[in-house]
Amino acid sequence: xxxxxxxxxxxxxxxxxxxxxxxxxxxxxxxxxxxxxxxxxxxxxxxxxxxxxxxxxxxxxxxxxxxxxxxxxxxxxxxxxxxxxxxxxxxxxxxxxxxxxxxxxxxxxxxxxxxxxxxxxxxxxxxxxxxxxxxxxxxxxxxxxxxxxxxxxxxxxxxxxxxxxxxxxxxxxxxxxxxxxxxxxxxxxxxxxxxxxxxxxxxxxxxx
Length: 208
Description:
Blueprint: H1 2-42, E1 48-56, E2 60-69, E3 72-77, E4 80-84, E5 89-93, E6 98-102, H2 106-112, E7 125-132, E8 135-142, E9 151-157, E10 163-170, E11 173-184, E12 203-206
Parallel strand pairs: 6-12
Antiparallel strand pairs: 1-2, 1-11, 2-3, 3-4, 4-5, 5-6, 7-8, 8-9, 9-10, 10-11
């Protein structure tokens, strides 16, 4: 009788874990499907523009506009302008009249480009999705603890596939970026590269 009882318990546990694993896999697949659709919407070949507001404990709240095309972006706020051509980033600081040239990390890109998650979610993250009203919320957790972005929450409009909020954890601290006024456009590649002729008096500092 005891062996029979133990056998029943083991069978029930195996069945429960099997159902849990299946549900997790389905949830992962559903989350990936949502992000795949969003990546197509905002990663259109011609490009797009939007408004954003970023807030975190270090910088407070900053608002501006952004133009994106593939993995390129051009972000503008009242304090700075950032150009990224897919490899090199130029950051113009209005207060100091300086341009810092760098090769940004994943997290540094995300801090200025709320859409950069479309290039990083496909590898190295476990994901799940929940629904809330007209939105889906996708939760990403890095499988590797050394990932610069450890965790993310992305709120996406279910009808349009356009994200409205990205919340990310970097070095134990959370940053939140809200996005609005998403507009598909045909953008020139030139706007993603710094042109020194437009800032003739700026000091250029190469940090690479």
